[in-house]
Amino acid sequence: MIRPPFPPGSLTRRRFLAASSAALLPLPALAQSGGPAASALPSDVDVAIVGGGAAGIAAARRVAASGRSYVLLEAGPTLGGRARTRTAFGMNVDLGAGGFSRTGATLAAGAQADGLALAPLPSGRRLFVDGHEARESAYDAFTAALGKARRDMLAAVDGGKDVAASVPLTAAPPAPASSAPLPPDIWTATVLQLLGPLSCGRALPTLSALDLSQRDAPVDDLTAPGGVGALIEALGAKLDARTDTPVTLITNSGRFHSITVRGQRTPIRARAIVLAVPAPVLAAGALRFNPVLPARLTNALRALPAGALEQAAFLLPGNPLGLQPNEAVLARAGRAPAALLRGRIGGSDLHVLTFADALAREIAEKGEASALRLARDYLSLNFGLAAERVSEVVCSRWGTDPLIRGALVAASPGQGGQRRVFADAVQNRIFLAGEYVPVAGWGTLSAAWTSGEAAAGRALALLGGPA
């Protein structure tokens, strides 16, 4: 059940930065695990779903509801993909997706149908300058700068042109009519951080302006009190889902495909496949195909490199920043490490920082020692908090996880049209699903979920509909 929204007046217009978000993710007991204790894998199914993240779970739920035979195969020990909830500091901690949108998606509807608790997220972000919440005029100036950046990007890609996202955003402004110098735009660096690294995990010069302008992702306005990762995993609890079951080879056998699973002699025959494996894993060739994937698809996958986004969670007792539960914070760019802060998760002392690009790669490589140092630097330089206020962190390391290999993918300059390739069926019977597949709204948990449902729908249409 969704809790009532925050009462009127609890979020002032100073906190209203919802537009900036668009520039920008009970535990199951019934999912079956691979290994000797698991029941034997089926030898023949209508639809095989490869990959147990949000997209794969959504696809499996739709196929299961149709009455068609299926199996969901996940290489890792748990379902959920980058939506993952860990136990730390005596509570559930999301080190991946922390929210999702109810707009245009069926993820929330599925959670409600299964009786899983949801809670609203505050709209927008709190803006801080030099350790204090920004004044009303600063919110207005930031919103104006962000709006101008979006308009400039849309103008730069008018007619389908594609350039580096930095080009329209860093072009020199026209000379003023007066000889008096204009004051520097103090929000430019913050806007560039938000639109590039903090949104996609990569710097703007490496991003396609066309791809970024087409994103238009809905704002995350819902979360799960027990953790978004736990919610996604629970949505797969009643499925025929096999974890610790890595697929090594998919072979086109004409009227069906054969799926080879590590440790199993006999392949699984499937009349259709939903391939819900992260794009960076496919791009790296970690899953083999016979015959190989079409060059058009492999080129498209390589044209959308993965970004780097890692999270560091920690306790900050006493609410020194004066935050409401689940509020997001953006500090003006300066000497501090660039990051996004989610504060007082569920009304607790838990806070989560998301670092991007080079800082995220450092965390992925070096782990919690680097995450602790960066979290302390962020809090000290932005808010003047003493380092000892944070004594311990837990962090994600998506960049070094071989089953994930980074964060969301975004097109390189000149490659903004490549995402459309992912809508095509592969070898007539394989349908792609994941956050990277939609042309609009890509890179979100809701996008992954809806793409899984769409891929399952296409697979069922190939088979002639429900059983």
CATH topology group of the domain at 32-85 and 93-117 and 222-305 and 410-463: FAD/NAD(P)-binding domain
Strand content: 15-25%
Query: Radius of gyration, rounded?
Result: 22 Å
Within CATH, the superfamily of the domain at 32-85 and 93-117 and 222-305 and 410-463 carries the name FAD/NAD(P)-binding domain
Largest sheet: 9 strands, mixed
Architecture per CATH nomenclature, i.e. the level-2 architecture of the domain at 32-85 and 93-117 and 222-305 and 410-463: 3-Layer(bba) Sandwich
State the separation between the terminal residues, measured CA to CA.
32 Å
Descriptive overview:
With 467 residues, this protein is of the alpha/beta class. The protein has a domain of 217 residues: FAD/NAD(P)-binding domain, CATH 3.50.50.60. 29% of the residues lie in helices and 18% in strands. Strands 1, 2, 3, 10, 11, 12, 13, 14 and 20 form a 9-stranded mixed β-sheet that branches. Strand 17 and strand 18 form a beta hairpin. Helix 2 runs parallel beside helix 14 and helix 12 packs antiparallel against helix 13. The N terminus is likely disordered.
Write the layout of secondary structure elements.
Layout: H1 18-21, E1 32-33, E2 44-50, H2 54-66, E3 70-73, E4 85-88, E5 91-94, H3 107-113, E6 119-120, E7 125-129, E8 132-133, H4 136-156, H5 166-170, H6 188-195, H7 197-200, H8 209-215, E9 222-223, H9 228-235, E10 241-243, E11 247-252, E12 257-261, E13 268-275, H10 279-283, E14 288-290, H11 295-302, E15 309-315, E16 327-331, E17 339-343, E18 350-356, H12 357-366, H13 368-383, E19 394-395, E20 430-432, H14 445-463
Parallel strand pairs: 1-10, 2-3, 2-13, 3-10, 7-16, 11-14, 13-20
Antiparallel strand pairs: 4-5, 6-9, 7-8, 11-12, 12-13, 15-18, 15-19, 16-17, 17-18
Helix pairs in contact: 2-14, 12-13
